[in-house]
Amino acid sequence: MIGITMITAVFTGPLSASSEDLMHDRGRYLLKISGCNDCHTPGYAQSGGAVPEKEWLTGDSLGWRGPWGTTYPSNLRRYMQTISEEQWLAQAKTRQYRPPMPWFALRDMSEDDLRAIYRFTRHLGAAGAPAPAYLTPEQMPEGPYVQFPAPPKP
Questions:
Q1: GO: which molecular function terms (predicted)?
Q2: For residue 130, is the peptide bond before it cis, meaning its omega torsion is within 30 degrees of 0?
Q3: Can you say whether the dihedral through the CA atoms of 13, 32, 143, 70 is positive or negative?
Q4: Which of 19, 119, 129 shows the shortest CA–CA distance to 72?
Q5: Pairing between strand 145-147 and 63-66?
Q6: pLDDT digit string, tens, across residues 77-125
Q7: N or C, which terminus of the chain has less Cβ within 10 Å?
Q8: pTM, rounded to two decimals
Q9: pLDDT given at position 4
Q10: In what order do the strands lie in the sheet with 63-66?
Q11: Where are the domains of the chain?
């Protein structure tokens, strides 16, 4: 019996990942499947997701212009360093971001999913520069942007 216990201890100890490692793995997975990198990581969508993880979520200078003005994908790595996990949860569940950010998708995520995204993003550390500031509808962006059509009239 002692031999079986020792063998079990040998095989389960080193093979088990920490709960924080599991949370990071979950956050990485959620960011990939939810499309966060598509906008918040420069070149991610264009490269078919072939951007190294160390470059993820640094924001982008590609603007998204429509009737709301021009928005830029924020640098989530810098942003997550400035707020607590509880603040992130509250914002993810209540804020309505400008298009094309699918804020409603954040509301549908579980608290555990949002925590995993937060912890993984913080784990990556701050990197990159802040994204350009929002421009009102009257302001023209200087750099590249995607033009959204006006929504159909009811």
A1: electron transfer activity; heme binding
A2: no
A3: negative
A4: 129
A5: parallel
A6: 999 999 999 999 999 999 999 999 999 999 999 999 999 999 999 999 9
A7: C
A8: 0.84
A9: 46
A10: 69-71, 63-66, 145-147
A11: 19-147
CB 69 within 8 A of CB 98: yes
Alpha carbon distance 65, 132 (integer Å): 13
Residue 69 backbone phi and psi in degrees, to 5: 115, -150
- Condensed to tens digits (0 to 9), the pLDDT of residues 53-68 reads 999 999 999 999 999 9
SS3 46: coil
On the 0-12 / 13-18 / 19+ scale of CB atoms within 10 A, 111 is: exposed
Taking the C-alpha atoms of residue 39 and residue 44, their distance in angstroms, rounded to an integer, is: 8
DSSP secondary structure of 110-134: -HHHHHHHHHHHHHH---S-PPPPP
